[in-house]
Structure formats: structure tokens, C-alpha cells
Amino acid sequence: MNPTRQTIPELTAVVITRNERDQLPGLLRALRFAGQVVVLDGGSTDGTAQLAARLGARVAVHPFDDFAAQRNRALQLVRTPWALSIDADERPEPGLAAELAQAVRHPRYVAYRVPIRSRIFGRRVRFGGTQDDRPVRLFRRDLARWQHQVHERLAVCGPVGQLHHGLQHDTLPDLAAFLHKMHRYTQAQAEELLAQGTQARWYTPWSKAVREMLRRLLYKGGLLDGPHGWAFGCLSGLSEWVLWRKVLQGQEEQRQSSWRRKRAELPCFAWQGRGRTPSTLEGTA
Questions:
Q1: Residue range(s) of every CATH 3.90.550.10 domain in the chain
Q2: What is the C-alpha to C-alpha distance for residues 144 and 122, in angstroms, rounded to an integer?
Q3: Which among 86, 110, 107, 90 is positioned nearest to 34, based on CA atoms?
């Protein structure tokens, strides 16, 4: 039997979903090497949870609040020693299954980073910051926990290694997908920044956007990816602009709310002017 097709009983693939019906069949076919697949659905309206159950996954449903909390809930459903965290729009590269089997059966580390190979508008990009995308995805279930509401990361108790084979990620299939993801992520991230007391100035959205574009295109070499890389750099700048505009709007809403609260707490003083109350003054010349 081809080793890349052998089942790895010590490993559970963990997926959190929301309206991923179109992506799920291809993903579950690609995860046949995993001993189990756990799907935690965040309240899909397209039948994602029902489809996942029919395709053999272990399915649970919990309303989505933030990414780290949802991933930690999914992790509680895992019964095997090892877990592989994977998104619905990601696919294992050829050779990854064999490397996963080697890592969990003869472990030298308690967790492993897995390279992410990104596709932007249908084309593979190699720069613009995507070359640094090596998150921890394979880990011992009992020694890791997700942190941060947005752009969540895995905190691991122990040494972390690196795998060579990775995951193919259809990061931005089209402009509509980018806009949907941008508004969803920036809203959650703005709420997190406001909760931390982060302050922004009127110029912050512009300075952050320019800085992000220059970082992606120049410092991270995005210009070398051609038009697709240029588009990715510019859209990343747009995302930063939207994020910090939402922070500014949130700050203004907080100020107005604070002003209304203080106003409501002011004591009511009797009107002293000429022995009249405010009600008797209304309508007088």
C-alpha cells in the first residue's frame, strides 16, 4: 500500500466551519489518511454540518464567537494524542501524509510548523509575506491551546519542529471572497483592539495602509510575484485602512456613549432664575 494512503490512527484532523459546503467534500477526501476528522460548525445555513456528518466526520455545532475559542472547543472533541488543524480551503500537499505519520509515530517535538503555500486569484504567490507563513498546525492535543480572537496562534508547551511538506491554501480565490473576508476579519480585529484600549488618530488608517503596502511589496518582495503580487499588496493595504477606520469609528462611539452616561449621572438642580422652573419658561418671550 502507498504509505501516503495509510491511515494514521494517532491523528485527528480538526476543522472549524461556517458555510463551507462547497469546500468540504474535497477537503474530507484529502484527509482520508487521518484516523478521525472532527468538524465544529459555527452555525452554517448551507447544510455544512449535515454534509460533514454524511461524509463520515464527527460533527458538533456551536455558535461562532471568535476563532481561538472555537478552535479550542473543537480541540476538546479530539480523542487521539495528536491533532492537525486545517481550514476548509486548505489541501495537503503530496507527501504531507507520510511526513505526518513519521512525525507522530517517532516524535522529536511536541508540535510542528507546517508551511502554507498561498494562491491569490488562482495563482501561486511566493513572496509578499506568504513565504513566512509557517504556523503550528500539528501538535500534541494535551500540550497546546489557541490564543487571540483574530489571527489566532497556538501556544505550545514544549519544543516545536518544522515539516517540509505543507498545505495548499486558496487564500483569495476572487475579489468577492477577499471583500467578505476583509469585512469579517477587520470587524473582529477592531473590536479586539478597542477592548485593549488601542487609540488611533485621524491619519492612522492612511499611515497603516501605506506601511502595509510597502511591507508587502518591497520589504517582503511582493513585486517579484508580478500583477498578482501587486494586487495582494494593495489589497492588504486596503484591509489595514478599513481596520483602522473601524477603530476610529469605535472610538467615537465610545466617546459618545461615555458622554451620554456622564450626562445621565448629573444631579438635577432646581431652576433658580427669577423664581421660575424650566417648564414655566417654555413659550415665554
A1: 3-171
A2: 33
A3: 86
H or E, element range at 208: helix 204-214
pTM of the model: 0.79
Question: What is the fold, at CATH topology level, of the domain defined by 3-171?
Answer: Spore Coat Polysaccharide Biosynthesis Protein SpsA; Chain A (3.90.550)
Using alpha carbons, list the distances in angstroms from residue 83 to 25, 78, 137, 175.
Answer: 20, 7, 8, 32
Residue keyed to cell 481561538: 68
Residues of the chain scoring pLDDT < 70: 1-5, 267-285
Residue 272 carries which side chain, given as an amino acid letter? Q
d(CA 64, CA 180): 16
Query: Which residues fall within 8 angstroms of residue 145, CB to CB, at 6 or more apart?
Result: 72, 75, 154, 155
pLDDT, tens digit, for every residue of 53-84?
999 999 999 999 889 999 999 999 999 999 99
Please state, in angstroms and as integers, the Cα–Cα distance from residue 3 to each residue in 32, 35, 168, 198, following that order: 12, 14, 20, 50
CB within 8 A of 32, min separation 6: which ones? 5, 7
Euclidean distance between CA atoms 189 and 241, whole angstroms: 13
